Amino acid sequence: MRVEILCTGDEILTGKTVNTNYGHIARRLVEVGLDVHWGTTVGDDRASLLTAFRQAAEHADAVIVNGGLGPTVDDLSQEVAAEACGVPLVLNEHWLQRMTESYARRGRMMPVNNKKQAMLPEGAELIDNPIGTACGFAVTIGKARFLFTPGVPREMRRMLDEQVIPRLLKLAGIVGVTRLKRFHTFGIGESRADEMLAGIPGLAIDGEIKLGFQAHYPQLETKLAARGVNADDLAGRLGAAEAEVRRRLGNFVVAEDEQTLEGVLLARLSGDGHTLSLAETFTGGIIAARIAPLSGAETVFKRGLVTRTLPSSGASVEAAARTADELRRDSGASHALAVLMQLDEAADRPDFGATICIGIADPGGTVGRLARLMGSRDWIRLGAAELALDCLRRHLLGLPVDERIDFERR
Q1: Domain at 288, CATH number
Q2: What's the structural domain count of the chain?
Q3: Could you tell me what percent of the chain has a pLDDT over 90?
Q4: What pLDDT digit, counting tens, does each position of 299-332 carry?
């Protein structure tokens, strides 16, 4: 089955917004065995959208349209889809009620223009959006089945997995259920991960269970994609492979599936009744910014200090450990994490180095970690923040905090 992904919006077309939705949709389709043949971007222009819909209807079997389902005048997907189908827009009473009730639960009255989001082409199949006001819908234009999704990434992603992909698999005649298992690691690159996982039965780029990697520094995502007759069959196919991947990647696995490193840390601290304070130099508060917004952080995160000034003794593991211990005592937290960074003298170059000194303090004492990172300022800042969070994770789990990572330099 030939699939086209058609993204709409002037901000996407002009480059003002990076189109991450396309990349996510394409990756997910390939992971479940669907072939993406075309990718199109169209602005908020009625004539251009109509032309794009009609062209896609001639060469594709299925088209995922992303964007243009909002309540404003430049959201044109429903109107143009109706025109391409040769049918009027009609009010979907069920979705109008859903939106009205959603606003009422938040103590608000639904704006009048949101009614537009319940106007769908006559005969359209509604595609549920459990977390937003823009419902999706499906219609047939020419020989192609068009499936419309909202541009809000978190809404699109959930609808893609729960609503769109199952419909496409059925349309393609692909039976069974699929699952994507993800492991998030820090400290190893693609080549090393590939070597570590070599020889696992049935696991390969083109194997029964498809193995894939996606690097997004400072983490690496290892993905296992499989299809089974039913949920039990799928669990049997993936279970042993998952366990072996988890065993081989070992201490480098920081989170799985939808988890994040900071989320794992917060859950561990909260579950054990611990609290945390932070001291960061040169990172710009990246660590605090990752922890503070999380649900439940208000009961765990005691204090965050962000500075560009090093202690009078300079950057060293001993200074980082001492800073963490003093912060822990002053703030009343059970745990404290300090990150001190000493930039090389050639810090004005685009590619330079820095010495990272990490200190962790808890009621039992302190531990430290020294590392050298090379690269741009942003590269080093991201790496230092990730390294610090990973050291704290390891410490809480009783793992060695000084295990060497691929990004370190002598």
Answers
A1: 3.90.950.20
A2: 3
A3: 82
A4: 999 999 999 888 877 889 999 999 999 999 999 9
Same domain, yes or no: 20 and 161? yes
Tell me, yes or no, whether 53 and 162 share the same domain.
yes
Answer for the pair 42, 7: CB distance below 8 angstroms, yes or no.
yes
Is 402 a member of any domain? no
**Range of 204's domain?**
177-256
The mean of the pLDDT values for the chain is 93
- pLDDT, position 35: 87
The tens digit of pLDDT for each residue in 193-235 reads 999 999 998 787 666 788 989 999 999 999 998 877 777 878 8
Q: Is the pLDDT of residue 185 over 70?
A: yes
Q: How many angstroms separate the Cα of 247 from the Cα of each of 196, 213, 224, 229, 250?
A: 10, 17, 15, 27, 5
Q: Indicate if 157 and 235 belong to the same structural domain.
A: no
In a shared domain, residues 207 and 312: no
Same domain membership, residue 245 and residue 334: no
pLDDT score of 95: 97
pLDDT, one tens digit per residue, over 368-407 is: 999 999 988 899 999 999 999 999 999 999 999 999 999 9
- CA-CA distance, 382 to 61, in Å (whole number)? 42
Contact 343, 349 (CB under 8 A): no
